[in-house]
# Entry
Amino acid sequence: MRCAASPDELLARADELDLVVIASPNKTHVPIARAALEAGLPVVVDKPLAGTAAEARELAALAKERGLLLSVFQNRRWDNDFLTLARLIEEGELGDVLRFESRFERWRPQLKGGWRESGDPQEIGGLLYDLGSHVVDQALTLFGPVVRVYAESDVRRPGAAADDDTFLALTHANGVRSHLHVSAVTAQLGPRFRVLGSKAGYVKYGLDPQEAALREGARPATGTPWGEEPQELWGRVGSGESPLTGGGVPVPTLPGDYPAYYAAVAAALRGTDENPVTASQAAAALDVLEAARRSAREGVAVDLAPHPDDEEPQA
# Structure
C-alpha cells in the first residue's frame, strides 16, 4: 500500500490510477472531485455529492466534457430491505403504491462531536444532508420526480448545532406521497419501511446488516453468505392487520449487496454497463434537500419543477 499526504500529491500520480474514490468530509467533495476530473480520472464520490444541486450539475458537466465517469456512492440502493421492496413493487404485490413511509432513526442522545454535527454551513453537516440523502434517493429511485416538498427540521439535543430530527413530506409527480423521517433522538424506533398500496402493505423493521458486519471486520467473500438476515427480521405483506400481532405474510428479505455497486462501476468503466448512480440523479436529490431546508426555515411547502438535464434513477 502506498499513501499520499494530500489529494494534490495523489493526483500528481494520475497516470498510475484507474479510479479515485472520495470518502472525505462533505465540504471537500466538490473541490477534490473537480481536481480529479481535471486530472483525467474517473471519480466515485460519497453522498452528498455536493452542498447544492448547482454544484452537482457543474461537476456532471465537467465529467461529460472530459468523457469521464462520475458516480455517487448511494449504497442504500443495495440494502436488503430496499431490494426486497423494489421487487415487491415491480411484481405488483402491493398494487398501486399510495404512500411510502421511510424511517432512518437512531437513539443517540449524546453528541459525538465532529464536522457532521457542526452548525457551520460550509461543513454541510446535519441529518438532512446525511441520512436524508439516503431516504430521498430511495424515494426518487422508487417513485420518480418530486413536485412538492414540505419539511420540519429541528435541533433537539443540548449543545447541538445542526439538525438532528427532521421530517420530509414529498409529493411525487405520479401522485405517490413519501413521508421520510431521519432522527438521532428516537427513543423507540419505528419501522424502517411502511409502504401502503391499493392491494396490500409492506412493513419492515430493522436496518440492513451489512454496515454492522463491515464495522465488525467482516468482508464479502465468494461462496460466503453476505447481507443476509434471520427469518425473524423479515418484513410482512398483508392488509387490515398489524404485523406486530402476526398479521400479513412473512416475506424473505433479499440479501443486501453493497459490492454490486462497485461491480457496476467497474462494468461502466469497461463500457459494458451504465453508471449505477449518476451525478444528475444526485443533483435531483439535492434539489429536494435544498427545498426541504427552505421549507423548514420558512414554514412553507416548496414546489419543484424538473430540471432538463436530470434523469430518473432505476430501482
The mean pLDDT is 95. The first strand starts at residue 20 and ends at 22. The two ends are 36 Å apart (CA to CA). DSSP finds eight helices and twelve strands in the chain.
